[in-house]
């Protein structure tokens, strides 16, 4: 048996489960770097011709649910876009199940909204009569009541799996998941439709599939066992979201449970550390490839207070270059630096002013964090490419941007300008000239200044969320009738001339955008590089499934905002569990220690060749003793800053 064939039995088990005559559900355990997604692709490519022919004959499909759109695109490519494979993300899949069921959705929403309103009213009666909490409850109750009253007017519900959903007829992400879960467990007709459509439902990264839908799928599978195969692929140690099913591996007792032993990604020393991290969790261990011995792991410890973090991290890179003999460690761009939170990456990449306001509102943060927020794309996919092309003197690229998104240079705009005064092309040139004036003499204008010029010259359409942020004297802001026409049914019948008339949720969005627009425009490029994973920084959420030759993990509770959801100081024994957390632990509930251990496992296992852990702590020596006594690190693998933080001059104690 070789490293390449050691896990062949697991793949054979999966292929046997995907039988139309005797479908069997399975849970594939596959740790970091084990080739889990490859097993999924091989299983799909290995389906025999007879199975595929039968599926096409009866108009049936194989549902393949992936964690990201990028993963969905890759699997679609591997199966040559064969329509028998329905490859989607979990939100897209859930929407495909319920789309068009308008009456059923309306009934569910009526019940759900009524329940929520009653709950808010109860909380309101218990709460104080004044303050932010009081005001939020009032706004929330008014918003839900209005939505309930208007449900009967909706002819069809809409939903965008990628991005944010606004308007009376739009469903939210959580609602789509909850609706699909409800119908899977409560509607026999719906269940029969799903059974007729799919003989197999395969879910990659199943440990992070939203708990309501995963529980519904497990219930659905148990009721119809032998008629459908639910294939789950994943690793509970790599669950990074709290809404995943914590005990998934304990809920699949009747499933086939193939397991993969190999880690094909990392060198032996990194695999050893990963095994040590999870030893006290589920005890599962991996094997490193024989042709990947060695590898380097180092921990760099420094006090949380009084440490110049930029200098200490620069020292870490230099020291890793010396230890590994790999000069690429000296180049920050050649290293993947992982933080526990996005805002820490934003701070180190210098786009915090843009990031902080837009990462908070519930209906903005998801789209903003993954780069799909429509209003943000005005800056990232319209203005930024235009400004970049102009600065580079690339008139062809600038015109391509305008042709792609500006109404001034569409066919009608080029033939005749507004009011016959100038052609659209002339107006576009004037608008571009005005825009570039903002950047004259290396000036870095605010996003608000850029927005005002774009709106004044109508270079690009202004997204709904940004219209209320325009100056009162701007042409767009003055033309309220135009705004009402473009905003559509969300503000139908409302007087938008006063802020009080705008729905409470829109006021919140406006406040967030007004704060974000103060940011210098240069932060847009840094933000875009981050969300497109072109920057040297990332978070545990964004790198799952990815791998890098050199990884630096930064653990810094002092700068974290997780508020107890994760704490490296607690994991390493510097701080005890608080009373509430200890009570949860006593009741068998998940603790801060478990969550932090998982985050550490996910980040450390991204490394292929070498790994540096940079830990800031109020008690570095306590962490040092923990790492050594638990067998995570050898004594000579830990580098500690001197007590007063003057490591730049005094060097470090080894």
TrEMBL record:
Stored PANTHER family: ATP-DEPENDENT DNA HELICASE SRS2, UVRD / RECB / PCRA DNA HELICASE FAMILY MEMBER
Full protein name: DNA 3'-5' helicase II
GO molecular function: 3'-5' DNA helicase activity; ATP binding; DNA binding; hydrolase activity
Native source species: Puniceibacterium antarcticum
InterPro entries in UniProt: DNA_helicase_UvrD/REP, P-loop_NTPase, UvrD-like_ATP-bd
A UniProt-annotated Pfam family: UvrD-helicase
Keyword rRNA-binding attributed: no
Entry binding sites for ATP: 30-37
Domain of life: Bacteria
An annotated GO BP: recombinational repair
This protein's UniProt keywords: ATP-binding, Helicase, Hydrolase, Nucleotide-binding
Domain annotation UvrD-like helicase ATP-binding: ranges: 9-280
């Amino acid at each position: 048996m070789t490293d390449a064939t050691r896990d062949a039995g697991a793949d054979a088990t999966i292929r046997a489960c995907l039988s139309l005559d005797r479908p069997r559900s399975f849970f594939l355990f596959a740790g970091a770097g084990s080739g889990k997604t490859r097993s999924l692709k091989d299983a799909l490519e290995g389906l025999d011709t007879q199975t595929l022919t039968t599926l096409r004959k009866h108009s049936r499909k194989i549902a393949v649910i992936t964690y990201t759109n990028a993963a969905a695109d890759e699997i679609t490519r591997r199966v040559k876009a064969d329509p028998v494979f329905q490859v989607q993300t979990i939100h897209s899949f859930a929407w495909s199940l319920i789309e068009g069921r308008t009456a059923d959705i309306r009934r569910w929403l009526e019940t759900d909204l009524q329940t929520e309103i009653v709950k808010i009213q109860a909380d309101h009666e218990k709460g104080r009569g004044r303050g932010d909490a009081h005001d939020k409850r009032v706004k929330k109750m008014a918003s839900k009541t209005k939505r309930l009253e208007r449900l009967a007017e909706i002819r069809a519900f809409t939903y965008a799996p990628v991005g944010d959903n606004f308007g009376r007829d739009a469903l939210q992400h959580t609602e789509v998941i909850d609706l699909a879960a409800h119908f899977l467990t409560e509607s026999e007709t719906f269940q029969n439709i799903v059974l007729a459509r799919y003989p197999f439902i395969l879910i990659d990264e199943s440990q992070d599939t939203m708990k309501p839908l995963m529980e519904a799928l497990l219930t659905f599978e148990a009721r119809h066992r032998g008629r459908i195969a639910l294939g789950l692929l994943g690793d509970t140690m790599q669950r990074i979201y709290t809404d995943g099913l914590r005990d998934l591996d304990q809920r699949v007792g009747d499933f086939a449970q193939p397991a993969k032993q190999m880690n094909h990604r990392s060198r032996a020393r990194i695999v050893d550390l990963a095994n040590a991290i999870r030893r006290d969790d589920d005890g599962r261990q991996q094997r490193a490839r024989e042709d990947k011995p060695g590898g380097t792991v180092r921990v760099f410890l420094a006090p949380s207070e009084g440490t110049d973090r930029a200098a200490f991290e620069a020292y870490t890179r230099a020291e890793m270059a010396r230890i590994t003999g790999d000069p690429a460690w000296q180049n920050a761009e050649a290293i993947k630096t992982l933080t526990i939170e996005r805002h820490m990456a934003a701070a180190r990449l210098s786009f915090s002013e843009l990031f902080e306001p837009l990462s908070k509102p519930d209906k903005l943060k998801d789209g903003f964090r993954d780069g799909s927020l429509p209003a943000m794309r005005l800056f990232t996919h319209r203005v930024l490419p235009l400004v970049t092309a102009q600065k580079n003197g690339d008139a062809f690229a600038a015109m391509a941007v305008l042709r792609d998104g500006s109404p001034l240079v569409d066919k009608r705009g080029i033939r005749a300008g507004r009011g016959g005064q100038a052609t659209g092309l002339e107006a576009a040139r004037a608008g571009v000239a005005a825009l570039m004036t903002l950047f004259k003499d290396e000036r870095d204008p605010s996003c608000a200044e850029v927005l005002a010029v774009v709106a004044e010259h109508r270079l690009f359409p202004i997204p709904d969320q940004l219209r209320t942020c325009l100056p009162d004297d701007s042409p767009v802001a003055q033309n309220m009738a135009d705004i009402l026409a473009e905003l559509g049914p969300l503000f139908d019948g409302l007087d938008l001339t006063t802020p009080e008339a705008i729905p409470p949720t829109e006021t919140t969005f406006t406040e967030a955008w007004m704060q974000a627009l103060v940011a210098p425009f240069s932060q847009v490029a840094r933000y875009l590089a981050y969300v497109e994973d072109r920057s040297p920084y990332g978070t545990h959420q964004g790198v799952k499934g990815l791998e890098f030759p050199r990884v630096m993990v930064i653990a810094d509770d002092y700068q974290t905002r997780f508020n107890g959801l994760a704490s490296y100081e607690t994991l390493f024994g510097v701080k005890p569990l608080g009373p509430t957390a200890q009570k949860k632990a006593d009741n068998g509930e998940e603790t801060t220690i478990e969550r932090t251990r998982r985050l550490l496992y996910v980040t450390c296992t991204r490394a292929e060749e070498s790994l540096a852990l940079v830990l800031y702590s109020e008690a570095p020596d306590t962490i040092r003793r923990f790492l050594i006594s638990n067998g995570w690190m050898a004594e000579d693998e830990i580098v500690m800053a001197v007590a007063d933080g003057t490591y730049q001059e005094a060097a470090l104690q080894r």
